[in-house]
Amino acid sequence: MPANPICVALDTPDLAKAVALARALKPHVGWAKVGMEFFYAHGVAGYARVADTGLPVFLDLKLHDIPNTVASAMTALMRIEPRPAIVNLHATGGLDMMKAAADAVAGRSKLIAVTILTSLSDDDIWQAGFETAKNTEAHVRSLASLAKRAGLDGVVCSPHDLVGIRHDLGRDFLTVVPGIRPVDSATQDQKRVATPAAARAAGADILVIGRAITGAADPAQAAQAIGAGLDAG
Q1: Is 148 known to be catalytic?
Q2: What is the block-wise mean pLDDT of the chain (233 residues), using blocks of 10 residues?
Q3: Which terminus of the chain is less hemmed in, N or C, by CB atoms within 10 Å?
Q4: Given the residues 62, 110, 134, 148, the one annotated as active site
Q5: Tell me, what DSSP letter sits at residue 107?
Q6: SS3 label, residue 171
């Protein structure tokens, strides 16, 4: 894995902007995240434009369907060149779905599971019908354990859930962590957040950071400053 844990979220439907950001940020970040907003606008060709900058790509499509459909989709994603470094699905799709996806990926990319979105509070999760999820941390730990049992490489989780996941699943289980906000940054639509230094101290492997970098007047300088703060810590 790249030594730099910063993964810049290129959450834009603007192809030229995404490619320009990836090129400008390559010296200062370790990864680029391409999500639904970009991929649905530009597809495999757009993805390839970002990947061709040389940054490893986390293809963040959060698949969630019946096992056969997800396995077929993962098989298709494994044909993309250059292949995504990381792909993901929703852990709430269940054990059989995750096993089918792991079989389809067959170690060619890192496969990780989204546990609970960092935009959801305890009350949001309760209202969505997860009646056993009033204790969000316990629910996340259960989903993370299920993902490991299915043969996945790691999870996407809140910085608040890192200590429990590390306790249960060890240091080798990959943790990809959104909801990262530098000091004095607005939380925006995220509810369970932490600073980059706090998340790394709690055990985060990869820090997903979007608007704090991409929305800055000088994105490269913003990324460099976050990286320097991590080095200083």
Answers
A1: no
A2: 93 96 98 97 97 98 98 98 97 97 98 82 59 70 97 95 96 94 58 80 95 95 94 69
A3: C
A4: 62
A5: T
A6: coil
